[in-house]
Structure formats: C-alpha cells, structure tokens
Amino acid sequence: MQNIRIAYLPLSKLSWRSPKIDSLAEDSARHLSELPGCRLSYPVPLITSEAEAEQACEKLQAQPPDLIVLHFVTFPAGALIPLIAARTQAPIVLLANPEEPGENRIWEQNSFCGANLGAFVMRRMDKQYAFVRTMPEHIGSAIQKHIAAARCIKTLRNCRVGLLGGRVPGFYTSNIDEMMLRRKFGSAVELCTLLEMSDLAEKLTPEQLRQGRNLVKKSAARVNGVSERELELLAKMYAAILLMVEKYRLDALALRCWPENPDIFGIAPCAAIGLLNDLGLPVSCEGDVPGALSMKILQALANGGIPLFVDLISYDEKENTAVAWHCGAAPCSLSRNFDETEYNLHFRVDGGNKKGVCNEFSLKQGKVTIAKLDQDKDGHFRMLLASGTALDTEPFIRGNPLNIRLHQPVNKLIDLIMKKGLEHHYTLIYGDVKEELLQFCEWMDIELLMPE
Q1: Most CB within 10 Å of its CB: which of 90, 297, 329, 412?
Q2: What architecture is the 4-142 domain classified under in CATH?
Q3: For the chain, what are the domain ranges?
C-alpha cells in the first residue's frame, strides 16, 4: 500500500515556551516518525509566530502532506490557525494533550482550549478535520483511523479503474457517473475491450503463460469436470488481463463476465477473477465499477488485505444472520479450508455444468466489514456500512457461500437496503475497519447509511 506523508505542526505562544513544551513537541514528532507506512514532515520545531507558520507552510509546498497533525502544545496565537488552514489542503487532526496543573498551580498548556479554538476555525473555513486528545506515546494508536482515511483519500485520488467489456445487460447498478467520480475522488475509469483480452491471450510469451499455469495449478486443491483445455484457457485469461492491467496502469477492475465472455473465450472468468483478487488487484464481477471502487476503498482502509465482491442472497431474523455469496470468483486465500477448493464447471453458463471455470469453496470465519459505495437518484454518493462475524459455513450451495452474524439487527439492514434502493452487490473485507470508514466518509462528505 501507499505510504502517506504526515506533516507535524506544533503550535505555542512564545511567552509560554519552556523546556517542557519543547520536549512535548519533540516527543510527539519522534512517535509520529516511527509510525509504519508514514513519512514525517516536521518543518519548524515550534510555531509561535505568523512568520514561522508561513515558513512551515512554504516548506510543505514542495511535498504536500496527506495528513496534518496540528498540535496545540499550548494555546497559540489565534491568527496561526487560519493562516495554516488557508495554505494547506490535507485533512487536519487537531491534537491536544491531557494535562495537570504545574508548579505553583500554573496551567502550563491550555491545550484542549487551543484545540477548541482550532475546531471553530476549521468549521468556519470548511476544512476536513478531526480531534484527538492524547499523550505523545499514544499518538500512533489515537490517529490510526485518521491515517487510514487519509491513505484511502490519497489512493482514490490516483486510482484508475478498468472497465473491461462494459457492464452486463440490465445491471444499471454497475453504472457510475464518471465525471462526478473524477471530481469527487479523483478516480478515473479506463475502458477496455474483451476483444483485446482475447487477442492478448493468443500472444503470450512462454514465460507469461508458464506463470499463469503455475498459479492456476496451486489455487485449487481439486479439479472436477474441468478439462485441461479449460485450465489452459484460465491461465491465458489471467495472464492476458495482467498485461492489460500493466498497459492501462489499473488499480482495480470491473469485468463484464457474461453473456458473451464465455462464448468469446470459451470459459467463464470466475476463477480468473479470484486469481487476480488474490494478487491484490480488486476485481468486481458483472462490470460493476462502484463495486470495484468499494473493494479498493476497503483494501486501502485495511492497509492491504483482500476484499470480496458478493451478493446478499438470504437472511434469518431469528439467528440475526445473512448469507453473502457469489458464483465461484472468490480468492482461494479466503477459503475456509484450502482442501475444499475445487475447480468446477459453471452451474449457470449455457444452461449449467457445460463450461468452466469456477473455484468453489466456503469462505473463512472472522470479523468482517461490509460496505458499498453508490450514487443516489440525484447523483450524490452514499456508503452502506455494516459489520459482523463470519461463521463456520458448510458448502451448502454451489459457489462461495458465507454465513455472517450481523452486529446490527439484520431486519434493520434489510429495511435500510430496500427503503434506500441500494445496489444488489456488496463488498466485504476481513477485519474491523468501521471507524476508518466512518472517518473517510466524514472527510469526503459521503452520506453514511448504517443500520442502527
């Protein structure tokens, strides 16, 4: 995942400066510099004047930060805050320290009160900001969700989503307003054709084909009814898509998997989608661009990890569970038990059990976060957010089933989905990134839809 640049800007009044105040700033900067995946900019040791604030902002212009920690080491001169806010674009964390009276009962910092002034200024200047109150040694854990949200914003700003073949017929849920997407997130949609994929598959070098074959062989424990020819086509499809990913500099992909793909190529692309997701490239089915982008968001917030693209096909109010599923495109790294993974013929294509290749298995247990970005009827962006615990799930249906016990009432989730007219595709990732997603939506001004 991308490193992010954090700017640390400690504020104080010159008349309040002391060895203790300098030490607090130095300790905070040291702990920030030790955070994994982050690079620290610390342009001025302690900002006590407008001239020093201007100097700090000027130094940051060469390498603009992705996140700013504005530390109220003491209550600052009030003019420093809007000056910095006006000259920087990144989200800002207002940092205050817990404090006790010092020698002679002197309130040495007035740190929270300074941050309170900062919040007033940020709100009036329409800045993305958050507030944290902690000591230097705990800064890393306190701003973890803010780092994740800043990383996600940066990731989307440079994100290129490939739309390979377009959306499938009638799936208007797979559409997105490309210019609104570009304006809101900075992300671009790159159109690619199935014809190019098919053509590249016949022009692979022996080494490219060998790599595809090796990955195919080790990504399922068994083969059931799938011919060697179809496994060879799977290796070719995977390798050809990788070439397109490199050519178009793609960070995620939405693939039109039916109706003509199996006719053009001879197989369904389900297993190839799983292989690509296991590689760390988020790939959605059925040409779903919002789905691919949702997968990328979850991946960025989790600082890696493999997201999953699913349908919600069933729910049980008594057990407070829901079944997530798709038809055999899950990455094998998310299997409940690798020994259960099996290459199979697709149970729907051409009437069922006539063409490969799906990778069928149940998905693993663990905490999961469920999310989906979409656009409402007026075009504004919304984000569904739910969480749960994935249960041990037997392979009770073909494909990739997963039974999830929701942390929220499942009937509330279903009511929300139906009343808000949400899309029928969802994404999930193993782990709890709820707080990170909440922060991302707040900073990006995305309407949050969450069952209560």
Answers
A1: 297
A2: 3-Layer(aba) Sandwich (3.40)
A3: 4-142, 155-449
CATH topology of domain 155-449: L-fucose Isomerase; Chain A, domain 3 (3.20.14)
Question: What does the pLDDT read at residue 188?
Answer: 98
Report the amino acid identity of residue 249.
Answer: R
SS (HEC) of the chain: CCCEEEEEEEECCHHHCCHHHHHHHHHHHHHHHCCCCEEEECCCCCECCHHHHHHHHHHHHCCCCCEEEEEECCCCCCCHHHHHHHHCCCCEEEEECCCCCCHHHCCCCCHHHHHHHHHHHHHHCCCCEEEEECCHHHHHHHCHHHHHHHHHHHHHHCCEEEEECCCCCCCHHHCCCHHHHHHHHCCEEEEECHHHHHHHHCCCCHHHHHHHHHHHHHCCCEEECCCHHHHHHHHHHHHHHHHHHHHCCCCEEEECCCCCHHHHHCCCCHHHHHHHHHCCCCEECCCCHHHHHHHHHHHHHCCCCCCEEEEEEEEECCCCEEEEEECCCCCHHHECCHHHCEEEECCCHHHCCCCEEEEECCECCEEEEEEEEEECCCCCEEEEEEEEEECCCCCCCCCEEEEEEECCCHHHHHHHHHHHCCCCEEEEEECCCHHHHHHHHHHHCCEEECCC
